[in-house]
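INFO worker-7 received task bundle
INFO bundle size: 2
INFO processing item 0
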Amino acid sequence: MRDCAGRLRLPASVIISTFRTNPYRGTATVTVQYYFEDFPVGMTREMQGPALTETEIMEFAGKYDPQYFHVDPERAKESIYGGLIASGWQTVGICMRLVCDAYLLKAASLGSPGVKDVNWRRPVRAGDRLRLKMTVIESKPSQSKPDRGLVLHRWEVFNQRDEQVLDMNGYGMYSRRPAS
C-alpha cells in the first residue's frame, strides 16, 4: 500500500503486530543495573553476533545504502570488493544491537552525543560473524550537570578470522547512581 506521495506504507495490523512482539518496548519497569560509575577506564566487554546472511545484507542495503556492491551479487563481483559486501552502517547497527542486548537496555543510559573516528577496515561479507570488543577509554562526570557522566568507548570489531573490520570511538551518557 502506498500513500499519495508514492511512499510505501505498512498496514496498521503489521505495525501493531511488530510493536506488540518487540521485547524491548514496554510498559514494564526495567531495573537499572548499570550507572555511570559502572564504566571505569580500562573496563572491557566482548560480544558475539550471529553469522550475517546475504539476504540480510541486501535487505538492509536496499532500504538504506543501495550501492550496487551491497545489493547486486552479480554486479558486485566486478567491483573492487570482488563480491557482495555489507554496508558499513549495517555493521555499526549490528554492533549497536549487540551493545543493547549485552547491557545498554539495563543501563541508566541518556543516549549519546555522538561518535567519532569511524573506520571501516575490511569488508564484511555473508557468513561473517562479528565480535565486538568495547573498552572504556575515558569516563568523566559532567561538570555542568552533576547527575550524569560521559563515557567514551573504543569499539573494535572483528570477523570470525580475527580480522579487524571496524573501529570507532563512541560516547555514552549515563545517569549517576542515586544516593542510598
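INFO item 0 finished
INFO processing item 1
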Amino acid sequence: SPGTTYYFSIRAVNSAGAGQQSNVQSVSTAASSAQQFADYAPGISLIIIAIAAIAALAVGVYVTRDRKKKL
C-alpha cells in the first residue's frame, strides 16, 4: 500500500562551532507498511516527529536568546 516517508536531519554544533554531528532520520507512515510498525511501539513515527519538533523549538529558543544577549 502507498505511504509517505519523511526525512529530517538533526544537527548539533558545539559552542566552538566545530565537530558538527548530523543524524538523518527517516519516518514512514503506517500506511506504507503496517507489519513493519508491528515490530516497534505503536505511533513511533509520531513520537519521533514530536521529539524532533521539540528539539527544533528548543534550539530556536536558544538561538533567539543568544542573539538577544549579543545585541
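INFO item 1 finished
INFO post-check item 1: Residues 3 and 32 are 4 Å apart (CA to CA).
INFO post-check item 1: Helices lie at 34-38, 44-70.
INFO worker-7 idle
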